[in-house]
Design goal:
The protein has one domain: Glutaredoxin, CATH 3.40.30. The chain is built from four helices and five strands, in the order βαβαβαββα. The protein is of the alpha/beta class.
Length: about 100
């Protein structure tokens, strides 16, 4: 299940000790809506192994600014609380799978 990540919940999620994939998106963003179903599928496939969350950039300015998100969708991949990879724009599901496998 995809987790909703907010400014308030960000550190709590990062402190769970699992790899994290965060999708920075907005409701009005057409490419973000295209990516959404892929993110949801991956969240189900990797449940229990990787935390997959979505950050609404319009409602979470602190986290969005912290990582300098200027284009959406942007997906960040974290391991040990450090960014280890980044995908800007929509990519194939296999691209995200390849990046997630590197986190495990």
């Amino acid at each position: 299940m995809t987790r909703t990540v907010t400014d308030e919940k960000f550190h709590e999620i990062m402190d769970e000790g699992k790899p994290v994939m965060l999708d920075f998106w907005a409701e009005w963003c057409a490419p973000c809506r295209m990516l959404g179903p892929i993110i949801d599928e991956l969240a189900s496939e990797y449940e229990g192994r990787i935390i997959i969350g979505k950050v609404d950039v319009d409602n979470n300015n602190d986290v969005t600014a912290q990582f300098g998100i200027r284009n959406i969708p942007t997906v960040l991949f974290f391991k040990d609380n450090q960014i280890v990879d980044k995908q800007v724009g929509v990519a194939s599901k296999q691209t995200y799978i390849d990046k997630l496998e590197q986190l495990l």
